[in-house]
Amino acid sequence: MSTRDDGPPGTQLVVGVDIGNSTTEACLAEIGPDGSISYLGTNLTRTTGVKGTPDNTAGALSAIRGALARGGRSAGEVHRVLLNEATPVISGLAMETITETIITESTMIGHNPTTPGGEGLGVGTTRSIGELGEQEPGQPVVCVVPPGWDFDDAAAAINAAVGSGVEVVAAILAGDDAVLVTNRLVRPVPVVDEVAAVEKVPLGMLAAVEVAAPGRTIRTLSNSYGLATVFGLDPAETRQVSPVARALTGNRSAVVVRTPSGDVTDRRIPVGELVLRGAGKTLRVDVDAGAEAIMDAVARAQPLDDAHGEPGTHVGGMLAQVRDTMADVMDSPGQPAVPVSDIAIRDVLAVDTFVPAEVRGGLAGEVALENAVALAAMVRTSRSRMQLVADLVSEGLGAEAAIGGIEGEMAVNGALTTPGVDRPVAVLDLGGGSTDAALLTREGKCTAVHVAGAGELVTKLIDSELALGDREVAEGVKWFPLAKVESFFHIRHEDGTVQFFDEPLPPHVYARVVVLTPEGPAPVPTRHGLDSVRRVRREAKRRVFVVNALRALRQVAPAGNLRALEFVVLLGGSALDFEIPDMIADALAPHGIVCGTGNVLGTEGPRNAVASGLVRAYAAAPVRAGQGPTR
């Protein structure tokens, strides 16, 4: 290590500062005349403003002062502040449904009320409860109960009709009285309730009502051939009703009413083409071909110069929205606006997903899981304002601030402080908007890439596939393990183990799927079971982080060969996730790679790699004449 011979005598107090997309980290160290480093304290704060803009100054000063306080030093003692040189990487994402279930001139009800009544399958002709007395005996009837009927009156009317020989095989209610009605019937039948638009149920039509036993799902109406059997359909009609069966899969109850002119179609909506320019070629791929086809085209166009969507299509609007958003966040006060035409998309991640969409033609707010593609797009801009940030930090702190090094190089430099790591080493920085990879060879050459898609995309996938409608709840599902509250005194964890409590659990979590936050169990507002929520969470992480880890490492590995890598260190906030590091390590294990979560400085875990890397780089390179401290 070089000896400092032209700087100020004695030791120097320096602060490395890493301004990231989400957090700003500082590392305070004392550097001796021989280049030795004594780390005194670290700190982490939330980034203020968009990375690489003057708004970062407040967050940087806060992180620096926090590190000084932890190290017991004052701002007047600081010799130099070292900032990372980083090209801002801004990510945006959008999601578009590519299939749609539409029901016209027919009716389907399959909204899964909380407590349907009875069980079994009933097939008959729909009749209003007020007309049951006029029904001829011997003909199967599905009784339709409009709003305003009391459960006692409804049960009495059905019992009277049955007593006179009418064969009531099922019932459809507007209210939520299915269990109360069923308990009063002399001959229990399947009953579906909570049908808000019950007045739209066509009368005089053949209908099927199915209710499964508690803990089970329907079998006949969720099966295309079951529907064909019930309604006597030919092969062409069976093909038409297959979307109905698909939409009812997983429900405990369902009603299907078939009208003579009913037409059910599964229509492909043209989403448009994604146009990719890179590697001296222009490639086009249909978004509705799915994520695999899109990512294959992205790989063939690497390095990507830009991406556009076909004008007038869904994908064209998606990418235009990403560009507009990025143009807004890149604007700085007193600086000329960034034309949208100057913004180039440098990476795209496509993920196949499902979006719960309301079924057009349904009567009770039915939803079907429709195929969708989520696109994460990333812009890398050359408008780095880090020197201006450095000037503002210097003014605010009263100490010299300078650009200390390129972010990717500093990250691997800091990762080398993890015990057990040596060159060549690759790092994966798992952030919120992008996944970054860098490789440092034995010779000291560093290569870095940024790819679109990280924690924010995972949150969006979880939110949409579970139909949560709440980003904070989706974040909780992503970050914390799950459990099912089985009584007021015990829960069953997602791994099957049972935990008992001395004090009763809060009533609002009883019989619910919960996330185990540090503040206690928090309910997840979904009807999905524990295993389903866990599967959605793990699949979202696999489709984003594992896929991105492999493709980013292939871009920095020699000749794209993962076996040429020896050590991979995971850094960033998402490396603190309780299962992502294991998932990535499992994916890299077949390639003989040592992979694990970084422990920067042996104490900081996956945090502070860039900030401590800046300090290490400064200690290794002597300060040139004329670059002493300024006060």
Indicate the topology:
Elements: E1 12-19, E2 23-31, E3 37-46, H1 56-71, E4 78-85, E5 89-97, E6 99-104, E7 107-109, E8 120-128, E9 140-145, H2 151-163, E10 167-173, H3 178-183, E11 191-192, E12 206-211, H4 224-231, H5 235-248, E13 253-258, E14 263-268, E15 273-278, E16 281-286, H6 291-300, E17 304-309, H7 314-330, E18 345-358, E19 367-380, H8 386-397, E20 400-406, H9 407-415, E21 425-430, E22 434-440, E23 446-452, H10 455-465, H11 471-479, E24 482-487, E25 490-493, E26 498-500, E27 513-517, E28 520-523, H12 530-556, E29 567-571, H13 580-588, E30 594-597, H14 609-620
Parallel strand pairs: 1-4, 4-20, 8-9, 9-10, 10-11, 21-29, 29-30
Antiparallel strand pairs: 1-2, 2-3, 5-19, 6-14, 7-13, 8-12, 12-13, 15-16, 15-17, 18-19, 21-22, 22-23, 24-25, 24-27, 25-26, 27-28
Helix pairs in contact: 1-8, 4-5, 9-14, 10-11, 10-12, 12-13
Folded structure, characterized:
- Among the domains are: 1-88 and 384-418 and 607-631, ATPase, nucleotide binding domain (Nucleotidyltransferase, domain 5), CATH 3.30.420.40; 91-98 and 269-380, Coenzyme B12-Dependent Enzyme linker domain (Ribosomal Protein L22, Chain A); 103-263, Glucose Oxidase, domain 1, CATH 3.50.30.
- It has 14 helices and 30 strands.
- α9 (407-415) packs across α14 (609-620), α10 (455-465) crosses α11 and α10 (455-465) packs antiparallel against α12.
